[in-house]
Design a protein that fits this description.
about 80 residues; about 40% helix; about 0% strand
C-alpha cells in the first residue's frame, strides 16, 4: 500500500512506484489546501508499507494524534478501525 497526493491522479498512478505491483488505486477528492492534512491522516491510520513516515508532523500525545486522524478521515467519509 502507498498513500500519496497529486493534482494529476492518472499520471501519478502511471508513473509513481512503477516497480511495485499494485492491483488498484483509490482517489479521494480533497480541497487543495487540505491535501497534506488528509494524506498525513491516511498515512497515520493505515501505516502503508511504501510510505516513509519520518517526514510526518509529530504529535507529542498519541491519543491526540489518533483523535485528530479520525476527525480528519471522518470529515471525508472514511472510517478506519485501529
Amino acid at each position: 500500500m502507498y498513500v500519496g497526493q497529486s493534482n494529476n491522479v492518472a499520471q501519478r498512478v502511471a508513473t509513481g512506484h512503477s516497480d511495485k505491483d499494485f492491483d488498484e488505486a483509490v482517489c479521494v477528492l480533497v480541497p487543495r489546501e487540505q491535501l497534506l492534512v488528509v494524506e498525513t491522516a491516511f498515512i497515520q491510520a493505515l501505516n502503508p508499507e511504501y510510505n516513509q513516515t519520518s517526514n510526518l508532523p509529530k504529535h507529542s500525545n498519541t491519543s491526540s494524534r489518533t483523535a485528530h486522524t479520525m476527525e480528519v478521515l471522518e470529515r471525508y467519509g472514511w472510517e478506519i478501525d485501529y
